[in-house]
Amino acid sequence: MAEERSYLIMLVDDEPDIITYLAMILEDAGYSTVFASDTESALPVLRKSKPDLLCLDIMMPRRSGISMYTEIKKDPELKDIPVLIVSAFSRLDDFVGERFKRIVPEQGVPQPEAFIEKPIRVETFLEMVKSLLSGSNAGGKAGT
C-alpha cells in the first residue's frame, strides 16, 4: 500500500496566536507545518525546509510580507513555491492587475497564487490550501 504524502506548509505571521490557530487547523487536516514570526527569520527556514506552500502575512514589523514575497518570486530556487497571502489589512483587489503592479512594481514578479482576508473562514482556508497543493488555482482567491 502506498504511503500518502504529507505536505509541508510554512506559516509566516508576527502574531503568535494566528500561527498557533493556522497550524492547528492545518495539522488537524493532516498537513505538517513550520513557521516564523517575521520575514527575516522566515527566509532561512524557507530555504532549508522548501515547503509545498507558504502562507504569508503582509503587515509585519521591520520588513513587510510584500518585500519577502517579491524576494521569493525573484529567487530561482523559491519562485515556484505557491504563496497564499493571509491579511487583515489588504483586500483581494490590491493583489490583482494594475493595483498589484503599484504595490510590486518590479518586472517579472507574478501576482500571488491566492489571497484570503482575516478573519479567515476555516472551510475556505482549507479549500484554498488543497487547491494550491493540487496545482489548481481555480477559485484560488477569496475574501472574507
Give me the strand/helix succession: EHEHEHEHEH
Q: What is the beta-strand fraction?
A: 15-25%
Name given to the CATH homologous superfamily: Response regulator
Structural class: alpha/beta
| Beginning-to-end CA distance, first to last residue | 40 Å
* Helix content, binned percent: 25-40%
pLDDT below 50 for ≥5 consecutive residues: which ranges?
A: 138-144
The CATH architecture: 3-Layer(aba) Sandwich
CATH hierarchy class name: Alpha Beta
Average pLDDT, rounded to a whole number, is 85
Q: What is the helix tally?
A: 5
The gyration radius over C-alpha positions equals 14 Å
**Number of distinct beta strands:** 5
The CATH topology assignment is: Rossmann fold
Q: Please outline the major beta sheet.
A: 5 strands, parallel
Strand order of the largest sheet: 2-1-3-4-5
